Amino acid sequence: MNHLLLGTVTAAALMTGAAIAKDVTVGLQLEPPHLDPTSAAAGAIDQVLYSNVFEGLTRFGSDGSVNPGLAESWDISEDGLTYTFNLRAGVKFHDGTDLDASDVVFSLDRARAEDSVNAQKALFANIVSVAAQDDTTVKVTLSKPQGNFLFNMAWGDAVIVAPESIETIKSNPVGTGAFTFADWKQGDSITLTRNDGYWGTPAKLDGATFKFISDPTAAFAAMMAEDIDAFYGYPAPENLAQFEADPRFTVLAGNTEGETIMAMNNKLPPFDNKLVRQAVSHAIDRSAIIDGAMFGYGTPIGSHFAPHNPAYVDLTGNSEYDPEKAKALLAEAGFADGFTTTLKLPPPSYARRGGEIIAAQLREVGIETEISNLEWAQWLEQAFKGYDYGLTIVSHTEPMDIGIYARPEYYFQYDNADFQKLIAELDVENDPAKRTEMMQGAQKIISEDYVNAYLFQLALTSVVSSDLNGIWPNAPTQAVDLTAVSWAE
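Now predict its structure.
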């Protein structure tokens, strides 16, 4: 009788515990450098804040679709030059102030200003003016039609910010989302709490903590101890089979927008020589990197484009693994004895582990690399902003971002007038068939110019508690959207 009673009480307690679990702890490998998504290139900012804290006029859905956000609807003029956005009524920032058209004007004007530090300033380059028609209506006028304008407005770089919060936005972000910022223990975690005054469907969670664990071994230990409820983008693929066999966990294997490349500094000798870039590309065995660094997770790519996109062209044949051809190309370029360069690696496992494999492959054709393992802030300062690198490995997780190759000032410093012209034409083209043709042409140009060494499309492998629902399996943008996440009752 006592045993039965004890069993009943224990079961009831467990059921009650499951029912009242209202918080979630999510593991991430990278910590944001600060908390303003409109002034940094770090995807870690959007991972924590996109949709959760900050929202834009439009927003990405889990399937990559572009949906209404703070704008409930919009009208587009016949000439494609004017977008009139109708804002939702009753939206408030987390500080209690009302969101109105003036906030949209401020945010877009700030993003496109001459002194803007927005990492994706090109998204706003075609905007001529932003004007408030009334409190809930904003008219955006473009210099030319832009087929992907609504898509651009869904990026994390285009979220709407409160003017009065700008001075402290990097440490105390104020948005309109379903969660409010609560605390940042730098080097450890960021905590959010549910926004009870949210304009839309309220979050089902009371709060969320993002825990930053860069070391794969520590990530495994934290997950197994159930100190965290989910690890988004789990960094140690060799452990996934063990998680799959454990009923406490579910492994989500999905797609990302992450073209993983080994970038080459196109203005730094010898990478200013196309023959050298071609040699580097032929020296690399993508399959060995995917198997050795990612345990088979990843899809080979031959250009900067996602294989799941309908406009994708398989160009891996342009840079097939051929070390003898690589040596011949180096000799033709005047480097028969090889050369030495830097290989700067940010923290993610694909970079650190892949970098060691690539260094060995390059050594086989006579290219020696001096490896530097950098923290994310160091990488942004040295490679992304300072152009201080020869080679570096990074995954570009922004959606549909082949247009970065039309920006000569971008960190790999590629300058091709024909490519720039093609992207400018793509920006204003609305016909789907023509856009596909242009995107395929763009892929071919950069593949045949060997701008970078194209490695693989990053797979998204997340480990979550089997009782946790709603974590996105795919990553159409850099976000851990918790707005619809819940525990099983």
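DSSP finds 13 helices and 19 strands in the chain.
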